[in-house]
Amino acid sequence: MLRDILLFLLDIAFSLFGITLILRAWMYAIRLHPFNPYSQAILHITDWIVQPLRTILPTTSRVDIPSIVACWLTAFIYLLLTWVIALGGTLPALGMLAPALLAAVLTALKWLFNVVVWATLIQAVLSWINPLSPVMPVLYTLTAPLLDPIRRILPRMGGLDLSPLVLLVIAQIAMMVLQHMAFSVFGM
Length: 188
Fold this sequence. Notes:
It is a single chain. This protein is mostly helical. The protein has one domain. The chain contains six helices and no strands. It has helices spanning about 1-30, 35-55, 65-85, 95-130, 135-155, 165-185. Helix 1 crosses helix 2 (about 35-55) and helix 4 (about 95-130) crosses helix 5. It starts with a helix and ends with a helix. About 25% of the residues are buried. The model has no long low-confidence stretch (mean pLDDT about 90).
């Protein structure tokens, strides 16, 4: 039972931090204003790992490579710690490190699609309940690059916007594919 509690807490802590790193890279890509209070919180939470990586890894005009690498490292450490706790303190064999490196990429991608799902859901619910919420401009800025192409393809439905539903379905399918790929990496 203690092992299950530790795995649960580990999953929450690493997933939230990995998602925060993904949000940082996403904010950089869409040029979200850095003085926004939500941006400031994300920057403060992640600076300790991203800033040292920024000294050795370049950034491009749209890609924050240090944040992406930090997310991948977070996923890798998460997988190693999960392995150690699940096996009662036994370290994985060296032959399992290469699949774990690939599994870390898949885990980070799964976190990315989780961000897409939650940002889209929160934006959709808030648009019905409180469209003037202070977080709505941030959510709109985050989701617009994903929803706008879908809106161009979908036929007009009057005042009903089905693009969030389509994005949610696409993100869920992507997470299923990633889960299947993660299992196949370890031969399960």
